[in-house]
Amino acid sequence: MTSPFQTSTELVVRRQHSDSAKKRTAFRAAFVLASAAWCIFALGTATPASAESTISCPAGTYDMLDWMTLDSDLRNTYHMEGTSNPLYTILTPGSGKFYWVKGGLGYPWDIQLYDSNYIYLWVTEMSWTVPQSYKKFTNNTNLPLVPRCATAGTPGSTIKVSNTNYDLHTNCSQSCSVTLGLQTSINQLWGPYSYSFGGDLPANLKTLMISYRYNCDTNYANCGDKEEYYLTQKYGLVQWVHYIRIPATGAYAQLQKTIFNKLVVGVVTPDFPCF
Known about the structure:
eight-stranded antiparallel β-sheet, 275 residues, 2 domains, disordered N terminus, seven-stranded antiparallel β-sheet, alpha+beta
């Protein structure tokens, strides 16, 4: 080892080369560390929600078919799970309908219709184990849930529905017609809010909430039931809550709540044998 007190010209030259080499090595190390840190940051950052446009909406409105459905780059491989049943999203562009399938056998399901004006509640299960039984709104489009291009707010877009009739089908052919409670419903879009649902979902997700109140009186008030659909742009439906109204107080009490906050590999084909 060279003594630090040596002063020969040869040693000075060696030290100059040694210092240059150390600087180059230090620079390379710093560059590698910076590159590694960037890669770790990029891989560790959750993918932000991005628009998957299904229709050209006016400025200031929301493409609700996009917000109600799991994005195509996810739904072709994954479905959502959480605190209760799974949720598979099946949407064929241009079909005029989409499925929320709530079981791994392809049923039960909620099937919604859509056109350029509205998204409509249409079909839901009557039995979780018999796909030949279902409930369907009588005129198919008599219960619009939300405008296709909707305005959010406190509330935003509001739809009052006077005809809430639906049919009960015990099998694919037999049916009877039913009037839903007191015949009216009122549907509103609220938000946007910032919510954290846990699981695999990023924190502080921008969220829209559809309030669906039914069993209402002729003034669209005193509604016996309220359902809330919590929607995010990339993941679609991430929470659903059902409340019932307590007549004595007029307040709502939570009856059921389901969170969909986990992305799980697996897809299904809807099993709806009747039509």
